[in-house]
Amino acid sequence: MSKTLFDKVWDSHVVQHIENGPDVLFIDRHLVHEVTSPVAFLGLKNRGIKVLYPERTFATADHNTPTRNQHLPVKDKLSANQLKALEENAKAHSIPYWGLGHEKNGIVHVIGPENGITVPGATIVCGDSHTSTHGAFGAIAFGIGTSEVEMVLSTQCIMQPKPKSMRITIDGELSNAVTPKDVALYIISQLTTSGATGYFVEYAGEVFRNMSMEGRMTVCNLSIEMGARGGMIAPDSTTFDYIKEREYTPKGKDWDKAMEYWNTLRSDSDAVFHKEISFNAADIEPMITYGTNPGMGIGIQSGIPTAQAMDAGAATYQKSLSYMDFKEGEAMIGKPIDFVFLGSCTNGRIEDFRAFASIIKGRKKAENVTAWLVPGSHKVEEAIKAEGILDILQESGFELREPGCSACLAMNDDKIPAGKYAVSTSNRNFEGRQGPGARTLLASPLVAAAAAVTGKVTDPRELMELQEA
Amino acid sequence: MAYDKFNILTSSAVPLPIENVDTDQIIPARFLKATERKGFGDNLFRDWRYNSDDTPKEHFVLNNPIYSGKILVGGKNFGSGSSREHAAWAVYDYGFRCVVSSFFADIFRNNCLNIGVLPVQVSAEFLDKIFKAIESNPKTEIKVNLPEQSITILETGEVESFAINDYKKQNMLNGFDDIDYLLNIKKDIQQFAQNTPL
Q: Which of A16, A143, A156 faces B83 most closely, judged by CB atoms?
């Protein structure tokens, strides 16, 4: 019987199928961070059991860590306590632990791929919804709750019914300044924030085939924002080139053997999906959000839609616009902004910093803008320095911080103040997500850079034309 | 962690007729710093419930004494966003045992089932009927019958059935959790692992 890519990976990991119930799914690799794991470790302690496969488990600190002075003790007591708990739990269960200051430390979804923990055909989970990122490599990867973290620690399995399958195909060529982030925000704006709930998505077509691994990670990362459990892309030479020779990927004969399997990881040509959707690359513009969920995005030159044009109820829509202090029909271009955040598991990789630098080079940070530039990991930070990007940033008046989740969820001190507008390369514009009362405009690194140097929402193509002229 | 058994729940309900209620609203990230599962109910809907000086926001439904009960009724796409189980813990810790909506986000629904909060998905029409019934009488009682998989607005007698898979239903009825099940088949899992290289 013909199978989708998702079927192939899922079915090969089913330990047991329960009739009219969930599958017992074996998890190859489990990523653990400080926020969603302590209660799970406590559960193990209460049951008197140990982690079953510590060698399949990896721990890092990222969610509540400071992005300045990481060599000093963490000031916030609760955060420090959570970090200490992770360190102790990792030690007690012999789990590799990459804490603050460790050369491999960084955002869990950045360091997984960087170190070769993420490989095609694997099942990967983490107590974080953006685990979908790892699907970029042709893995099944998704976020789980803390009860499930406890299940994986204790038995390396979770119990879930198999999701339905959806394929999103985009062919054609992307226009100038349209990045993977724009592709994802466009898809979410079309499907809404719940349009893929219950599905696991496969991204197919020219646009994704031509994308770098960093770009694919950005797209898969945002799968959860349309409600999908995860998204995946069939592995190809781009994938294999990226993972080869990374620390945890197979070597020598093991690599050859793995390649034989990985080369089978694509949907059969006659495979049937529960739902098929396609878009045209040429329809996608640089995007920006204007509301309080990631589905509320528009092309940067468009006006804010009217309530009538929306799927959500009018009351919900008005609540959202009132939070943002925006009005129906207004243009986004030219709106003054206060903060710019470049970073997160969505856009905190080296390509994102290259894109940002390409716009700000030779320009100055706008005086009214506070910019937080936070690399996804120490390896990204090293690359920023090695490629001379740090010099460009500093010449333009920007400062580079230390790695972590930072203002994406504002668990640490990086909080956007109430009422202020932030153009953010992160993944969620929910009310208060970046700090109580903060107003978030999600966008690509190019749009963020354009805002950072002009102090207002600006079409990056205008600045690129000036550079070319 | 085993949890309370769920059988039949009859209670008044708290209405929250807003769509796309995300987990950052249910519990903001700055309240996720605990290392134990305690006290999350105090921060349920924190920023909708309290002003920045911690005084209650009068107009928010949880601060309105005419609404109470063990059932929370939310608009479409309830619980979207983050995988934080803390959101389900906050709902439970506040005193809710059941959340009703016309559509749930995946991970939130799963987390609820794993801790003993029953997510009941009803049609958009039935959800509307519940909201109207509560609007006309805030003490309206709703009966959630898990064995029969039905939900009834007692005042009007309007009833609808809801879906839940047999395995999870038995877990809820008996207060079992998945780890008990998985630990029982540990040998099968270990055998499977041997054939699944890293």
A: A143
Would you call A432 and B47 a contact, using CB atoms and an 8 Å cutoff? Answer: yes
Cβ separation A436–B52 shorter than 8 A: yes
pLDDT at residue A452 tops 90: yes
Q: Which CATH architecture has domain A5-275?
A: 2-Layer Sandwich (3.30)
Residue B30 has pLDDT above 60, yes or no: yes
What are the extents of the domains in chain B?
8-194
The fourth-level CATH superfamily of domain A287-468 is Aconitase, domain 3 (3.30.499.10)
CATH 3.20.19.10 applies to domain B8-194: yes
Residues of chain A with CATH 3.30.499.10: 5-275, 287-468
Q: What is the mean pLDDT of residues B49-60?
A: 96
Tell me if the pTM is above 0.95: yes
> Of B182, B184, B191, B194, which to mutate for an interface test with A (greatest number of A Cβ within 10 Å)?
B182
Note whether A140 and A224 are within 8 A (CB): no
The 10s digit of each residue's pLDDT in A54-109 is 999 999 999 999 999 999 999 999 999 999 999 999 999 999 999 999 999 999 99
